[in-house]
Q: What sequence folds into this?
């Protein structure tokens, strides 16, 4: 019997409005892996954005250029006006919260985490990369959320948009996993091409599986 539902954050519960942040940042750090950027800025609790930016520059051997700095602040670390919550999130979380424990596992920088602080109140366990120093698909994040929710893997469902970060690690631990493919018009990234089942396109689709398992 399912006792807990764990959610990924980006492109599952929230999205970044009309911007091509990743593409643009990629252009600035030519040839570098975006995952490495995430490993830097998403696994620490920084006191200031300057510190986060300095770390980035060090890692990529980039001069602490004003233009790049402004760019990062405008499009990523410092800007919350792009961040938005999908319409189906509150009705579904409210409903599920009456019957199941809710968790969130996210790769996120500490500045965005601060922005979502109020939203995180909906969850019984909040496991964020910036707080625990590891990033998905590290199984440590999943073990922690299961531990905090007090459920066994088979009693928990993971819902996320990324096979590598959400579905595979959850399955490895023995959790159930539902892939969500959001409407492409709101996405910054191309939805993943896969035949994985079960796949849903909005959160309302979850309940059917919860009662089935
Ligand atoms: Mg995601």
A:
């Amino acid at each position: 019997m399912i006792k807990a539902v764990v959610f990924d954050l980006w492109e599952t519960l929230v999205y970044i409005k009309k911007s091509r942040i990743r593409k643009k940042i990629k252009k600035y750090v030519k040839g570098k892996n975006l995952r490495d950027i995430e490993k830097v800025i998403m696994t620490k609790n920084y006191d200031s954005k300057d510190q986060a930016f300095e770390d980035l520059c060090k890692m990529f051997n980039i001069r602490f250029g004003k233009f790049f700095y402004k760019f990062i602040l405008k499009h990523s670390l410092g800007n919350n006006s792009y961040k938005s919550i999908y319409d189906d999130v509150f009705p579904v979380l409210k409903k599920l919260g009456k019957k199941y424990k809710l968790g969130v596992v996210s790769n996120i920088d500490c500045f965005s985490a601060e922005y979502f602080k109020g939203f995180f109140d909906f969850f019984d366990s909040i496991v964020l990369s910036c707080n625990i120093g590891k990033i998905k698909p590290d199984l440590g994040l999943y073990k922690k959320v299961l531990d905090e929710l007090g459920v066994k893997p088979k009693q928990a469902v993971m819902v996320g948009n990324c096979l590598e970060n959400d579905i595979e690690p959850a399955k490895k631990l023995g959790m159930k996993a539902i892939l969500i493919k959001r409407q492409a018009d709101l996405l910054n990234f191309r939805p993943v091409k896969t035949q994985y089942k079960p796949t849903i396109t909005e959160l309302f689709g979850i309940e059917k599986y919860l009662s089935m398992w």
